[in-house]
């Protein structure tokens, strides 16, 4: 029997081995998981106001690295100018802004046009979004999350041009669709049924291509994204008076409506903190009117069917107002 305080070699070796099982050395793989996620945001910023609030959250999220922001639907050049000013005023001029497929026949209610045209610095050139995003995927295969918060024209164009490269996305996180709850159904009453959600019904074909692309798709539908920024919460954000929140204040005033619904911001919140919008595997079919119907079959999407608005805003507001 050994005396108290002594340690035979075999016993010490076993003891040290047992400690290693509780305190494993950090491997390169585990270290990599803590690095920011590479994202590209595809947005129709300038009509509704929620796109700007989504971009603002991304700018204040250490969990992500924004490789670029692309514009989609209608007047993509003016949308790019809006982003130039928003990013410049907030101190993020280094983020590339690209323009999506332009269709002059599309007329939109570009409520924040004056803000976009009020940028007094040197004009910037904007690369083509489809080529830029595909090139970024080639440089970072399996690493990029594409965040789509607008119509899916750029997505469809990328799949048509180079489906193999598109398939090398890590995933797509999108705001779109309506499964059980439609517009105005905030979850306090029995669901009145889904609606054809705007982003999907504008380009049904591209949505179908996305679901068939082989890329993991995470959907934040109307069921979980009708997040009302009421008067009290707006006051907290706007009174922060930071370079970023000042831009949100200007854009909100040009929007000329009262209570924003931050549909799009949930996509970024989900990437930052997935438990804010837990997902369920579903097989989604898109009909000709743009309804996203859950049906039997192998899941082709992960869908967030519910969220807690209070938890969302307790996460969102401190992030965005931080000085």
Write a short abstract of this structure.
This protein is 40% helix and 15% strand. It is built from 15 helices and nine strands.
Topology record:
Elements: H1 9-22, H2 28-32, E1 37-43, H3 50-59, E2 64-71, H4 76-89, E3 97-99, H5 113-116, H6 129-139, E4 144-149, H7 153-161, H8 163-166, E5 171-175, H9 198-201, H10 204-211, E6 217-220, H11 222-225, H12 231-239, H13 243-255, H14 265-272, E7 279-286, E8 292-295, E9 301-304, H15 309-321
Parallel strand pairs: 1-2, 1-4, 2-3, 4-5, 5-6, 6-9
Antiparallel strand pairs: 7-8, 7-9
Helix pairs in contact: 3-14, 6-7, 7-10, 12-15
3D architecture notes:
With 323 residues, the protein is an alpha/beta fold. It has a single domain (34-321), classed as Ribonucleoside hydrolase-like (Inosine-uridine Nucleoside N-ribohydrolase, Chain A, Alpha-Beta Complex), CATH 3.90.245. 40% of the residues lie in helices and 15% in strands. The protein is built from 15 helices and 9 strands. Strands 3-2-1-4-5-6-9-7-8 form a 9-stranded mixed β-sheet, sandwiched between helices. Helix 3 links the parallel strand 1 and strand 2. The protein is globular, with a radius of gyration of 23 Å. The N and C termini lie far apart (64 Å).
CATH topology: Inosine-uridine Nucleoside N-ribohydrolase, Chain A
How would you characterize the largest beta sheet? 9 strands, mixed
Q: Order of strands side by side in the largest beta sheet?
A: 3-2-1-4-5-6-9-7-8
Q: What is the CATH class designation?
A: Alpha Beta
Could you list the spans in which at least 5 consecutive residues all have pLDDT below 50? 1-33
Gyration radius, to the nearest Å? 23 Å
| Shape descriptor | globular
CATH superfamily membership? Ribonucleoside hydrolase-like
Secondary structure: number of strands: 9
Helix coverage percent: 40-55%
User: What CATH architecture do you see?
Assistant: Alpha-Beta Complex
Q: Return the average pLDDT rounded to an integer.
A: 90
Structural class: alpha/beta
- What is the N-to-C succession of helices and strands? HHEHEHEHHEHHEHHEHHHHEEEH
**Alpha-carbon distance between the termini?**
64 Å
């Amino acid at each position: 029997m050994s005396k108290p305080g002594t340690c035979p070699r075999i016993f010490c070796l076993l003891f040290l081995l047992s400690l290693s099982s509780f305190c494993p050395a950090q491997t390169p793989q585990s270290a990599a998981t803590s690095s920011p996620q590479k994202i590209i945001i595809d947005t129709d910023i300038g009509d509704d106001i929620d796109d700007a609030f989504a971009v603002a959250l991304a700018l204040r999220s250490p969990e992500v690295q924004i490789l670029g922001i692309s514009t989609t639907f209608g007047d993509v050049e003016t949308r790019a100018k809006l982003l130039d000013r928003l990013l410049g005023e907030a101190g993020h001029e280094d983020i590339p802004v690209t323009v999506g497929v332009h269709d002059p026949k599309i007329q939109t209610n570009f409520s924040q046009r004056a803000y976009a045209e009020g940028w007094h610095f040197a004009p910037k050139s904007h690369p083509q979004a489809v080529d830029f995003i595909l090139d970024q995927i080639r440089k970072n295969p399996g690493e990029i999350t594409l965040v789509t918060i607008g119509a899916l024209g750029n997505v469809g164009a990328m799949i048509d041009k180079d489906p193999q490269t598109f398939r090398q996305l890590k995933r797509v996180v999108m705001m779109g669709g309506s499964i059980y709850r439609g517009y105005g159904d905030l979850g306090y009453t029995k669901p009145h049924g889904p609606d054809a959600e705007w982003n999907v019904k504008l380009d049904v074909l591209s949505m179908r291509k996305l679901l068939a692309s082989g890329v993991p798709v995470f959907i934040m539908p109307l069921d979980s994204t009708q997040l009302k920024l009421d008067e009290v919460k707006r006051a907290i954000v706007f009174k922060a008076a930071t370079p970023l929140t000042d831009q949100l204040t200007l854009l909100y005033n040009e929007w000329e409506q009262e209570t924003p619904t931050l549909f799009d911001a949930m996509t970024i919140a989900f990437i930052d903190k997935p438990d804010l919008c837990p997902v369920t595997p579903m097989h989604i079919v898109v009909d000709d009117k743009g309804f996203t119907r859950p049906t039997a079959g192998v899941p082709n999407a992960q869908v967030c069917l519910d969220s807690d608005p209070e938890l969302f805003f307790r996460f969102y507001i401190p992030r965005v107002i931080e000085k």
